[in-house]
Structure formats: C-alpha cells, structure tokens
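Aim 2 progress. For RNA polymerase subunit sigma-54, the working sequence is reproduced below.
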Amino acid sequence: MNLIFLSIIEDDDDKKFMLNLYQQYYPLMKQRAYSIIKDYGVIDDLIQDAFVKLIPKISLLRSLSSYKMTSYIIYTMKHICLDYIRMQTRRTRHAYSGAANDIADQIPDLQAATEENYMLQEEFESLEQALFQLSERDRNLLYFKYNMDLTDKEIAGLLGIPAQHVRQYVARAKRRAFQMISKGENDHVRDE
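Predicted structure tokens for this construct:
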C-alpha cells in the first residue's frame, strides 16, 4: 500500500486523519470507481487522485457528519472517474485522412458508450429510489401496468379496485413517481 498522497500533507494530525479516511472508505471508493470505469488496473490510481483532491478540503471534511462525509467522498470519486473517462476519450480520438471513406467513422467509441452506460445506470438508480418512496399500491400499479403488461381489468382484480378507475390510479402513480424523480434530481443538483 503506497499512499503517495500522504507525502503531500505536512501536518501529522492531517496525515492520520487522511490515512483513517483512506482505510475506512477505500472499499467503498473502489466499488464506486469500478461501477463507473470497469477496469481494476486504474482504480487505485484514481483513488489516489481523489485523495489528492480531498487534501485541500481536510478542514471541511472534519466538520461534516459521517453521512455527509461519505457522500462528499463518493461524489469526489465519481467526478474523478468521469474526468478520467473524458480524458481517455480525448486521448483516443484519432483523425484518419486520405481516403474518401474515413475509417474513423466506422470505429465505435467505447469510452462514450461507457459514459452513456454510467449515465443510464444513474437514471435507473434514481428511478429505483423514486419507486421505493412511493406507496406499495402505486408501485404495484406501475409494476402490473408496465412490467407485466396487464390489462386494467386484470389489475383491478389483483388490487381489488374498480376497473374503470385503474387508468386514473396509474396516471396518478406515474405523476407521483415523476415528482419523486424530479425532486431527487433537484436535491442532487443542490448537493453538488
């Protein structure tokens, strides 16, 4: 375990604090980085980069509660990973010229696909969080309607509600789910 970022810190208390953070949050940061990058070869370097970015924020980190500190550290790790993806994308862009049909247009951009997959994963996570905040009835309505493709009559039979009201109940459940997602995005934007 070669913690290069510790050599930057002059104060011994700050070194101990950052070493403790590293030991405490390393597994979580590694898991989060792998969920974005999918390459164990660079994850340790990215974690080191994240801690280098956190060094100027030591006083802020000391003042945060454990929940806020965890969020702050994980958001830092996420942004380090996204910066790495952007840097790799810029690095791998090549312009081929000479032929009338440029072969570069036929090569898939795997880095862009990785970033798109990560964004899609975050959207699914926010949808999942919103669904868990809904009532059980709303979750069941949306699940039966959109996952199981049941008819209104079948849904009414399962939930014990009048068939003529199912469409309205589904519309309200969708509206509440959309409000939860919108609220979550607004909270996320305020946190950053």
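The helical segments are 12-37, 40-54, 58-63, 66-92, 110-133, 136-147, 152-159, 166-191. This observation will guide construct design in the next reporting period.
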